[in-house]
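To whoever picks this up:

The nightly regression suite flagged Sensor histidine kinase as changed. Nothing in the input moved, so I suspect the structure step. Input below, exactly as stored in the fixture:
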Amino acid sequence: MLHWRHWSVRTRLMAMTALPLAYLFCTFVWYAYQSRLSEVREEMAERGPLVAKVLADSSEFSLVSRRYDDLKLTINGLLRADPSIQRIEVLDAQRRELVHAAARAVSTSPQELRYDEAPVLKRLMWVSMLAPDGTPYQKDRPAASGMTVETMGYVRVTMSPSALLLKQTRRFYVELMVGCLGLLACVLLAWQLAKGLDASLQASMRALREADDEKRRLIRKVNTAVEDERQSIALEIHDELNATLIAVRLEAQRIAAISPEGEARDKAQSIIKLALGLYNSGRALVRRLRPEVLDMLGLDGAVEEMMRHYDSARSGCRFDLQAQGDFSKMEARVAISAYRIVQEALSNIVKHARATQASVQLSLEEGELRMQISDNGAGFDPAQASSGIGLVGMRERVYALNGRIAIDTGLSAGTRINIAMPIR
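Regenerated output under the current build:
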């Protein structure tokens, strides 16, 4: 479901670098586009009223003298000079059209057009002019001298954003091209960095895998050496110590047989008991060092014998074994490792789990030895409990054979250990 888990290291590094760059680039493009639109709106809001005001001020004389042709020439020149002006209309005081001119039609929706209007004002200034005798020429002059202002028409300017948008679009494309070049440079740099980091990481991973393989080979050699040394010690105990104890017991029995009743016979009987106890202890030690049943009965038989031993010890826990497959042809090093793992797990159950029931499942499936060791004991918290030597030893034995181990546990939830190891 999560495809990124299957990505290579270089792809992940590129994604980690490219995604922030792509986000920054998209933010930059969006901001540049919006800022250009804002500039167009602000420029239209400033230019429209200014053009209408200037044209209204310059149209006073033309309207008074009714020189509409001159006014139209002025309007047409203004339209050619400023492509953002779509239409100019000159109206009289009753808003009847006197002069109009429009630029070439462009594809602009009516909602995008902006209309600005300014009044054309007529200013009258009264000047006192006297005849030589001191009498005024104009006898009908208003009593109050000065300037009179009246509205004689209007100038309406229609602004279109098309030309301004075209200019700002060109600027935006330039910025976009510069941004794309910068993004491309960053991507190439990120690619080179990812390539270098990937090569360095791959080299480190190869070195780590080689070190791990070397560690596993060393662990296999150590385990083999330990098992060989255990076998040697077991043979020494079996052949030397136990044989000597048998001889001691036989001599003590002969002494007891020829001695009259009394202290000598009692001492001989004590020696017999001590020799027998030491012999049994030696046999138990030999079985622990090198289980003979593993060679005679195979892994399943050896585990069954081990579980009978724990049952006879009256540990308060009932043990159950389920085995499926032919374990007689299993490689010796796999069998002894599996036996030691089960031995350590059962020992932990007896010592720490306080369980009342435990089970061991052995099966041969798909070229693997699969084991499940579970109990209903106290369990432990994997996040807080530190791995003891037993768990570490179990993991190392499994990893040394290129196997897998999973421990499922929790407080008051029991423990379940799943192990899979190749048998070849």
